[in-house]
Amino acid sequence: MAKLTNIFNNRRSWAAPYALFLVLFVVLPLIMIVFYAFHDASGTFTVHNFTKFFTTNTDLNRFIYSIGIAIITTLICILLGYPAAYIMASAEFNTPKVMAILFILPMWVNFLLRTIATAELFSMLGMPLREGALLFGMVYDFLPFMIYPIYNTIQKLDNSYLEAARDLGATPLQVFTKVTLPLSMPGIYSGIVMVFMPTVSTFAISEILTENNIHLFGTTIQESINSGTMLNYGAALSLIMLVIIGITSLIGNNDNSESREGGLL
Q: Quick check: helix, strand or coil at residue 45?
C-alpha cells in the first residue's frame, strides 16, 4: 500500500502514460515513416522514392499547386481574420463573447460534415465545385485558427503603449501601423503556421469540394499509401511533407522570438 501511495505521490509517475502515448503514436510512426521512405518493397535501402518524386512531373506539380493553394488560403484568412480579431479585442461589454461564440459554433461540427454541407450549398446555388469552392471551404474550415491567436495577442497588449502613442500626437492610423500591428505579429505568425500546415496536407476537403477533380499533395500521399504497392513512395512523400512543416514551424518560432526581443523596432 505504501508503494502504491508513493507511486501516486511521485509526479514522474503521472507522466508515464503520456510518455507511453508519445512513444506509441508519435515516435514509433515517425520511425516507421523514415524506415519505409528509405527502403523499397523488398527492404533494400534506397533513395529512389525521393528521386522518383522530383522526376515525376505530376506529383511535383501537385506539390507546387498545394503550396500555392495553402499560401492563398493563408492570405485570405489573414485579411478576414485580423479585422475580426481586432474588433473582438477592441470591443466592449459582451461583443467579444458573442463573436467568439459565432466563430466557435461551426467548430462543434465535424469538419467533414461541414465540408459536405458546403458542397451541398454550392450545388443548391448552382455554383460549380471547382477551385473557388475549394478555397471557400479551406477558408471556412481554417479561419478560426487564424482569428484566435491574433485575438489573444491583441487582447494582451499593454494599453500604455497605445496611450503613449496618442499622447505623442499619433493619429489612429499611425497608432495601428506603428504600435498595434508590430506588437500583434507573434499572433499573426502563429496563425500562419496553424493555417498553412494543415492546408498543405489536407485531401478530404479537395476531394469533396471539387468532386475529386483537383488533387492536392495530400491526395497523392493518401493514394500512394492506400494502394499498398506504393507504400514506400507514400512514406517518402509524407517525410517530405514533415520536413516542410518542420521548416515552417521553425521559421514561425524564430519570427516570434525576434518580435518579442525587438519590441517596436
A: strand
- The pTM assigned to this predicted structure is 0.84
In a domain, 38, yes or no: no
Q: CB-based contacts of 39: which residues, under 8 Å, 6+ apart?
A: 45, 46, 232
Question: Is 211 within the bounds of a domain?
Answer: yes
| Cell output for 113 | 460534415
Whole-angstrom Cα distance, residue 195 to residue 150?
12
Domain range for 87 is 58-262
Contacts of 135 (CB under 8 A, 6+ apart): 69, 72, 73, 76
- Asked whether the beta carbons of 89 and 154 are under 8 A apart, the reply is yes
Give pLDDT tens digits for 30-78.
999 999 999 998 889 999 999 999 998 999 999 999 999 999 999 999 9
What per-residue confidence (pLDDT) applies to 253? 61
Q: Please give the single-letter amino acid code of residue 21.
A: F
Question: The domain that contains 164 carries what CATH number?
Answer: 1.10.3720.10
**132: how many CB neighbours lie within 10 A of its CB?**
13
Give the residue among 197, 170, 168 at the shortest CA–CA distance from 181.
Answer: 170
Give a yes or no: residue 97 inside a domain.
Answer: yes
With respect to residue 155, please indicate whether it lies within any of the assigned structural domains. Answer: yes
Q: Is 93 left (phi over 0), alpha (psi -120 to 50) or beta?
A: left
Number of domains in the chain: 1
Encoded amino acid at 127, one letter:
M
